[in-house]
# Entry
Amino acid sequence: MKRLFLLVSLLVLSKFSAQTWATEDQYIQKFAPYAVEEMEKYKIPASITLAQGLLETGGGQSRLALEGKNHFGIKCKEDWTGKTMKHTDDAPNECFRVYDDPRQSYEDHSKFLSTRKYYTGLFNLDMKDYKAWAYGLKKAGYATNPRYASILIGKIERYKLYEFDNTSSKEVLYAVLKMYPDLKDDRSFMAQLEPSKAVKKSKDPVTVEVPYKQTSYAQQQKRVERIKTKAEILNSILIKSHPNDGLKYIVIPEDTNVKFIANKFKVSESRLMKWNELETDVLHKNDIVFLESKNSDGNTATYKAESGEDMHDIAQKFGIKLNKLYAKNRMDEGQQPSVGQLIYLIDKKPRN
# Structure
């Protein structure tokens, strides 16, 4: 009788426990929302990101994923200032990045692709053409395996990951449920699904500090909303590709400082100051900030200076180093152009 009772109890409990899936299915269920969020922010197909994550982590079981929360095998590189771990990959005891949360790994993967010149051509591809992206990654040297592209495509087609290229962060959990109908009996999954109907999925919550000022509650709430809106705007900055050889840059949407941008895009403050020839760490709305070193030439032959523009403005507009711009135009550093002055961006200004 006791054995029968135990058997019945186990059957009842199993009805309400999480489904048992193959490792890669579990990975898809858990990390598809991250891939879709990154697609919306950086225009990288969710299917590609998810397939790369599946492959790099062995369905979430690799040492890098389990111990370092590193889902894409991104190595330290010279600009990484975070935690690290040693792991044998192409060579013994190589340095790999360590994250506090897998979500950080997903965003760092997006930044890695969107800020390096090798991958510039990918962002000219159709975002829903996962095959072109797979072959483009291989061609750009993302992986050494000669079958890398076909392996990615195989995973995308086996698990129908291309479905996530046609959804949004608001609807991604419904796409997962459609793919795995038995999840309707999984309480933990359904608990995630229900709130998503009413709550807009966003990035990590923004902590807002509001200076105290004796005033009415309504006025204080307005101040909170203004500050909160500014913080959210800054957190939504997207990386752009400059016409000058695809240089990666951003446009500052609200007044901020170099430290904020450095932390957000994982670039040292000193490099940002150097690359953008900044004299102070203050950044103003509509300032152009490059996330890599600018070029020695512009992408067009000449330009006529407009009212209110200085040489630094022109250097930022065309992605050219300021000292090179001065040299091309036979001007002393600090000298500013007059309105309508012809500025040379590729060749040196002819002598009079």
